[in-house]
Design goal:
The complex is a heterodimer of chains A (about 270) and B (about 270). Chain A has about 270 residues and is an all-alpha fold. Helices cover about 70% and strands about 0% of the residues of chain A. In chain A, about 30% of the residues are buried. With about 270 residues, chain B is an alpha/beta fold. Chain B has eleven helices and ten strands. In chain B, the strands form two sheets. Chain B has a six-stranded mixed β-sheet, sandwiched between helices. A four-stranded antiparallel β-sheet of chain B has the order 2-1-4-5, covered by helices on one side. In chain B, a hairpin with a 2-residue loop joins strand 9 and strand 10. In chain B, helix 5 packs across helix 6, helix 5 runs parallel beside helix 7 and helix 10 packs across helix 11. The longest helix of chain B is centred in the last third of the chain and has 15 residues. The N and C termini of chain B lie far apart (about 70 Å). Classes of the chains: A mainly alpha (about 270), B alpha/beta (about 270). Chains A and B meet through helix 3, helix 4 and helix 9 of A and helix 1, helix 4, helix 5 and helix 6 of B.
Chain lengths: ~270, ~270
Amino acid sequence: MSETHASAQLIDRYVGGDTAIPGDELWALEAHLENCPVCRGRLAEIVAEQTPDVTSMLSGIWSELEPLAVSTPAPVRRRRWVATWASPTLVPWLGMTALVMGLALLVDWADSTAGRPSLVQLLAPVAPLLGVAVSWARGLDPAYELTSATPRAGLYLVLRRTMAVLAVVIPLLLLVGWAAETSVALSLLPCLAFTSATLALGGVIGVSRAAIVLASAWVVLVVGPVLAGSMIPLVLDPAGLPLWGAAFVLGVVTVGARSGAYTRLGSHR
Amino acid sequence: MKGDEHVIRAVNAAEVAPTTYAWEIRADGLRVKAGRRMAVDGVDLSLGAGVHGLLGPNGAGKTTLIRALATVLRPAGGELELLGASVGGRTEQRRLRRQIGYLPQDFGFYKRFTVREFIEYMAWLKEVSKKDIPAAVQRAIERIGLADRADDRMKTLSGGMIRRAGIAQAIVNDPQILLLDEPTAGLDPAQRLRFRELLRELGSDTCVVVSTHLVEDVAVACTDVMLMGEGKLVFRGTPAELEAAGGAGDAGDSPIERGYTALLARQQPDRGSW
């Protein structure tokens, strides 16, 4: 604000209700008072001096109001920070993911002599899909229609929620992968590729449906044959990593190009 | 100094800027699909501030029209302008949605949230600035009369209270356009009276579109009525004009109900008694 302040004399006349103050000056004074705490302070002092009855009335009202205002409970804030990242319905789904990976780890420990790739490594790529499915799904998020009509809906919110999923699932995979002695890179890149592919396909057929399609395809085309015949496909070999990288990039590009799809109801029926 | 803590907020320039559009909602030959069906088929609208009642039988396209106005469904044809901006652009849409309040017909909520947390979360989604959220939430809760239950979990509320929480989330961002789909379902008579009062209050400076099948709500609370049948606007006028459309021979218990059945029968003469 400007450094100029209203003179004490002018404020004095204003408080006294002087009708001789020209209209433009009065207007300017009031506009200045709205924005200038210093002059409001002077105004308060002069009001206290000149019209003690006004001051006593105001302090009487405040003394009545203040106990009421204090007794109103303060807003609860504990959930707000988490809710702006994770979808509010996420927790049970993450629990389920942890449970599945834990079981896979137990199977690996119990049956470590077999020549097949570890079950943890086989399941790691699709591990985040449960959580990703919840991030933007009509059937799994009760407030879906409310949320999709808000300005924050869309790619921004979907990515934010996906980040929250990955922030939990990736440390979990690292931990389980370390315990099962599998290659970390071989679980993480496929995991990211599956996440981006789910979001990309989700823009067309709905995220939860996309997660189901991709997870089933993975189980039928890779996990099943590996467990049945113990052949190791290219996708589980370190030589397949560039393929996973390419799939990840492709997914990200598709999601970016179709970002409008996440702000409407139409594509998620 | 005490006086300074209680200064009323200053009005900013955006709030007093003149509007640059004639109508809050303007549609021209609007067509919207629900699934494969063309549920809204050629609707022309020009709605300003006030409470606009949207009446019609089930399946007439009311919900689809309101969803299109809420920008969650993309129009299949025709033109739709909200607050002077054509609906479609992505960045524009985000700015536009900050000015819209929407209560869907069946809205879900998170059972474990308290009323306050739910409305705070919705305010965050609506990009209400962080410092304004607590005050805006408190105001919305008080306007809808839920202050005494504000810190109870949503799952402990009755159906009518949940609906009121839904209305509170719709008005938390002080929208220019307020879209309420069946807001009075589940409210008891006293709550409906209070709700009509709130509607009138909101309608003084907001464009409120209320879809309902309770004809008496429309008669009391709305400044004008739109009657939809089979995706088209059958009638648009004041509640008094709707009453005048019905004659003694039409079905219905009140003049406005007779007007409603008369106008619908004129559009669909071959329809049965349902």
